[in-house]
């Protein structure tokens, strides 16, 4: 796994480079990843708008800022993602805002479908669910992981699957409404948990 982490870090890009890459792909009528479809392009466009809005509106809580002050070790947050992923569009602006607030956190982003081997080590219920954040220390050892959703959203997904067998368009709409109301608070709480563990 160390080998795949090293490869991922070598190919990783910053948040601003990621945003530009996705915008450039959209401008040329494409989404990230090897599979191209009208749906994935439309999701990418929607997510690009969401991220632009969240970049401007996310406010870090007092608890988050306090946890950042207490963190005294350099860490890297390596995130596997794709531009069409709705959960990633909600999480990445929050994760970026937190990382920007600390000199000790380096945020690096890689595309899931370009890093199959690494993704294979961090599956969620045997699936390649994203975003997946891998917390690395200065020796690139894995300290922790997070994703693909904050814990409240994860419970919502599980409860809905238990009741209905699978996720449908109605639930996906309900989840987006929850994200909008939550304003990144639950993601921040989860990130604070990563920092204090």
Question: Can you walk through the features of this model?
Answer:
By secondary structure, the protein is an alpha+beta fold. It has one domain: Glutaredoxin. 56% of the residues lie in helices and 12% in strands. It is built from 9 helices and 4 strands. Strands 2-1-3-4 form a 4-stranded mixed sheet, with helices on both faces. Helix 2 runs antiparallel to helix 3, helix 3 runs parallel beside helix 5 and helix 7 packs antiparallel against helix 8. The two termini are 22 Å apart. The model has no long low-confidence stretch (mean pLDDT 96).
CATH fold-level label: Glutaredoxin
Sum up the overall morphology in one term.
globular
Structural class: alpha+beta
Largest sheet: 4 strands, mixed
The percent of residues in helical segments reads 55-70%
- Tally of separate domains: 1
Name the strands of the widest sheet in spatial order. Answer: 2-1-3-4
Runs in which pLDDT lies below 50 for 5 or more consecutive residues are none
Superfamily at the CATH H level? Glutaredoxin
Mean pLDDT: 96
CATH class, please?
Alpha Beta
CATH architecture classification name? 3-Layer(aba) Sandwich
Rounded to an integer in angstroms, the radius of gyration calculated over CA atoms is: 16 Å
| Extended strand count | 4
How far apart are the first and last residues' alpha carbons, in Å? Answer: 22 Å
Oligomeric grouping of the chains: single chain
Percent of residues in β-strands: 5-15%
Count of helices?
Answer: 9
């Amino acid at each position: 796994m160390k080998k795949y982490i090293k490869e991922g870090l070598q190919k990783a890009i910053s948040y601003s480079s990621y945003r530009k890459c996705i915008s450039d792909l959209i401008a040329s009528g494409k989404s990230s990843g090897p599979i191209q479809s009208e749906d994935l392009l439309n999701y990418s466009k929607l997510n690009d708008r969401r991220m632009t809005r969240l970049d401007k509106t996310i406010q870090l809580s007092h608890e988050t800022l306090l946890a950042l002050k207490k963190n005294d070790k350099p860490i890297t947050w390596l995130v596997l993602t794709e531009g069409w992923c709705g959960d990633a569009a909600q999480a990445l602006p929050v994760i970026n805002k937190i990382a920007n607030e600390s000199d000790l956190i380096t945020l690096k982003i890689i595309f899931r479908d370009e890093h199959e081997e690494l993704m294979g080590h961090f599956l969620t219920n045997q699936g390649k669910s994203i975003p997946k954040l891998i917390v690395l220390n200065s020796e690139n050892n894995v300290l922790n992981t997070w994703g693909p959703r904050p814990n409240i959203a994860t419970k919502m997904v599980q409860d809905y699957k238990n009741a209905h067998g699978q996720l449908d368009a109605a639930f996906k709409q309900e989840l987006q409404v929850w994200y909008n109301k939550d304003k990144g608070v639950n993601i921040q709480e989860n990130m604070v948990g990563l920092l204090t563990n």
